[in-house]
Amino acid sequence: MKSARRGPSGLTTSEEDYLKALYLLTEWEETEVSTGALADQLGLSPASATAMVQKLAAKSLVHHVPRGAITLSSTGRREALRMVRRHRLLETFLRDELGYGWDEVHDEAEELEHTVTDRFVDALDARLGYPRHDPHGDAIPSAHGQLPASQAIRLDRFTGARAIIDRISDEDPQFLRRAAAQGLVPGAVIELPHQLDFIEASLIWVRRS
C-alpha cells in the first residue's frame, strides 16, 4: 500500500484507495462486498482490511456491520467517484496525449491520481474535450459525480447474435493486448458466438447492436 501521505481531499492515500476499490467492486456487479473481498482486491491481509474499514466507518465514509457487507455512505461514494474520475481522466490523458498503450495506462494512473489537485483534474478534463469514457470504455464521472448510464452486460451472459463492445476490464494487461490484436475494443461490433474462453468473455461487457 501507499504511504499515509494525505491527498487533496484530506484523506490518506490508503483511505482513498479503499474507497475507490469498494466502488469498483460494485460498479458492474451487484454484489455484497466483505472485508475479505476488499482485501483480495487490494492485495492485503483481511486483518488490514478490517482495521481500515473500521477507520472509514468511524469517519462515516462506509457502513459496515461486523461480519456483514460493506457499503459506501453518500460521502464515501462522493470521494470514491472523485478518485475514479481522476484515475480515468489520467488514463485517457496518458493514451491520447502521451502515446501510452491502453494496457500501460492503469498502473501509471494509479500513481498519479493521488498527487494532482482538483483544479488540475478539471483543467485536464477540459483539455481532453470532456471525455465520457476512458480507454477501456469505463464511464468517467463528471465533476459533480454524475455518470452516463450504461445497459451493458457481461459477454458470457449475453444472448444474441450480434453485440457492440461497451467496455473491457483493465485487470489483465496481457488480455488487453490480445483483445486489441483481435479488434476487441470499445465500440467494435462482434458476431456471436465469438472464439473466446469463459474467463475472457467475463472481462468484456457488451450491449445490443
From TrEMBL:
Keywords in alphabetical order: Activator, Cytoplasm, DNA-binding, Manganese, Repressor, Transcription, Transcription regulation
InterPro entries, per the entry: DtxR_MntR_Metal-Reg, Fe-transptr_FeoA-like, Fe_dep_repressor, Fe_dep_repressor_sf, HTH_DTXR, Iron_dep_repressor, WH-like_DNA-bd_sf, WH_DNA-bd_sf
Coiled-coil stretches noted in the UniProt entry, renumbered to this chain: none
Domain HTH dtxR-type positions: 11-73
Cell compartments where the protein resides: Cytoplasm
One Pfam family it belongs to: FeoA
PROSITE patterns: HTH_DTXR (PS50944)
Subunit structure: Homodimer.
Protein family membership: Belongs to the DtxR/MntR family.
Cited PANTHER family: IRON (METAL) DEPENDENT REPRESSOR, DTXR FAMILY (PTHR33238), TRANSCRIPTIONAL REGULATOR MNTR (PTHR33238:SF11)
Protein name: Manganese transport regulator
Source organism of the structure: Glutamicibacter arilaitensis (strain DSM 16368 / CIP 108037 / IAM 15318 / JCM 13566 / NCIMB 14258 / Re117)
Lineage of the species this protein comes from: Bacteria, Bacillati, Actinomycetota, Actinomycetes, Micrococcales
